Structure formats: C-alpha cells, structure tokens
Amino acid sequence: MNGWTVRCRQDVTYRINAVVDVFSPANEALAEAADVADGKRYLVVVDRTVDSLYGDRIDRYFGARGARTVKYTLGPGERVKTADSLLDIARTADQAGIRRRCEPIIAVGGGVVTDLAGMAASLYRRGTPFIRVPTTLVGLVDAAIGAKTAINHNGHKNRLGTYFPAAHTLLDPTFLRTLPARHVRNGMAEIVKIAVMKDATLFALLEADSADLVESRIATAHGTEIIERSVTAMLGELEANLWEHELRRVADFGHTFSPQLEMCAGDLLHGEAVAIDMALCCAIAHLRGLLSDDALRRVFALLQGLGLPTEHEACTSRMLLGALADTVRHRDGHQHLPLPTGIGSAVFVEDVTPAEIAAARDTVRRLQPIAANR
C-alpha cells in the first residue's frame, strides 16, 4: 500500500475593534460580532468581580435582544486557571445547549478569563467560536489580542494550551475606570515591554505621562495613543508568527524568568513578575555592553515611577537558573533571550551564564536607589 501526503493551509482572520461602553443598550458592536438575535443562547464566562460590577448590564444587553445567557463565573487570580475550571466551562456549555457555530462563547474579564474561555472554546466540539471582551489593561494590550489560550498545570504557568484566536475582540477602555490601581500597573508592564523592544516613541510617551497614568486609568494627554501604539506594535509581532513557528520573539522580553517567578512567589501579578524579569534582563544587557547606562536608568526609572517592582526575594540563584532551564526547553533547546540594545531595539542571545545572572542581580540591587531618585 502506498503512503499519502496531505497538504493544507489554514487561513486565519480575526477582528479587533475599539469600542466605547460595549454593554450600552444602544451599542451594536457586540450584537453584531456575536450575531445576537431573538431566541439564541450564549454562554458568558465572566470574572466574579466583573459580574458584580457589570453583570446586570450584560444580562440586560442580551435580554433586550431576546437572547438568553447562561453565566459561568470564575473567582479571581491564577489559582482558578486549572483543568477543573476548563472542564466546568465545558459542562456549562453542554447545560446551556449552545449550538456549535452560531452561538459563540463570550469571555468578559481579564487574561485568566479570556485564556480559560478561549481554551474551552478551542476544545468544545473541536472548536466553537468565541468573543473576547477584555476588562483589564493587560487584556486590552496583550492577553486578549493574540491567538494563545492556556491553563496552568503541574505547578507551571500556561503549561497546557492551544492556538485559537477569538473571532472578534472588543477593546473598551471604559472598563479601566473601575480597575484597581495595582491591576493598571500590571498592564503597564506589558506596554513597557513592547516599548523597550520596538517603539522608542511609545517609551517617551510613557515617560511623559508616567506620573498620572495609573491614577487616571490611562486617561492622560497621550493615553489613547499609548494604548493604540502598544496594540499595534504587539499585533505587528504576532501577525507574522501567530503559531510561534519562530521561537525567537521580542514579545518574550520579560517572559524568560517571570513564568516561574510568578508561580513560586505567590504574591505577584503577571505584570509585576514581567517587570522584575525586564529589570534583570536590562541589567544583563548593560553588563554585556549592549545597553547604555542612560538607557538602563531610564527603564528602571519608568518601571519604578509606574509603581512596578524591579526585584523580589524569590529571585534566588536557584530559582532563576531553574526558570532559565525550563524556558530553554520551552524554546526548543535554545535561550533565545531577547535583550535591549537601546530603547526600541533588541537582539537575541544564546549564551547567558549563571555568573552573568548573579552579576545582574547585584546590578539590579545597586540601581534601586539610583533609579528611584533619578
């Protein structure tokens, strides 16, 4: 018997729209994206806090159009990003009786919600469309605009996951008005990440508005441009490499040590761990002569000015080396470590040593008062 070769291509198109007050009864953006109509049923996966703030508005929005919603409500934080939650969402989808193609799952919340709902959608009946409505800054600029879904497993962040972009994503910055300040800072880390790697103008805008960005919930003179430039830069990285066939990714800046740090520290949000990782990697770049003293201090000053941490007691040599080893496995046997060569440019290195990491930790410690008093 002869063998067979199957060749096919997957054409992927998904839409991200900026909207204002998405659950206003007069706003048709979500109704059009999800084809909301009389008699249809929708599973809405929502964060508990978001449900307490916006749940009634969500119900009224669908109800006004004759549609029925079944909610699955998640508790806060990474601790719920588990296989148990994933299977619970699938069971709730069965109970809701949603149809496979024309009744998409609606995810309303932060990155945990969109990751979980997206993975459930990718698996339910081998693929059910879903719509993302991110309500956090990290969701607006990072977690809810790509193709990745995930759950945590076996003590590791995002160890199980799929590539399954939402059919539509609706970015509504008005949710930031009710976002706690710490979670604004959490999202700011991802904006700093892409600015350091790709966009010196964005970095300068962050510096100009840094004193007011958190308290104003990004409603500063340059707030809209900051979000737009961040999303544009991130999508520019993702579009050409959506399935991550190329494992050298500047979007991985701040994501070499941070996954392990976030899981083992226990008291860090994702963006806080990313900020600490960025600080360490900038110190490595500086010690290698890749990053000037002025650029290093600007990064530290911006991170600390935004209220983000740049070090943590969990960053022991053992933890950092273990984190790097796991990342090397994740990157198929290579470090592929993105390091800045200036504000807005980067290179990849493959040979960072334990001695360099230890020296970088010392640099980070020395820079704390300097950056804070700059």
UniProtKB/TrEMBL annotation:
Residues 187-321 form the 3-dehydroquinate synthase C-terminal domain. Pfam families: DHQ_synthase, DHQS_C. GO terms for biological process: antibiotic biosynthetic process; aromatic amino acid family biosynthetic process. Keywords: Cobalt, Lyase, Metal-binding, NAD, Nucleotide-binding. It catalyses: D-sedoheptulose 7-phosphate = 2-epi-5-epi-valiolone + phosphate. Its EC number is 4.2.3.152. GO terms for molecular function: 3-dehydroquinate synthase activity; metal ion binding; nucleotide binding. InterPro entries: Dehydroquinate_synthase, DHQ_synth_fam, DHQS/DOIS_N, DHQS_C, EEVS-like. Residues 73-185 form the 3-dehydroquinate synthase N-terminal domain. Its cofactor is Co(2+); NAD(+). It is an enzyme of class 4 (lyase). PANTHER family: 2-EPI-5-EPI-VALIOLONE SYNTHASE, 3-DEHYDROQUINATE SYNTHASE. This is 2-epi-5-epi-valiolone synthase. It comes from Actinoplanes teichomyceticus.
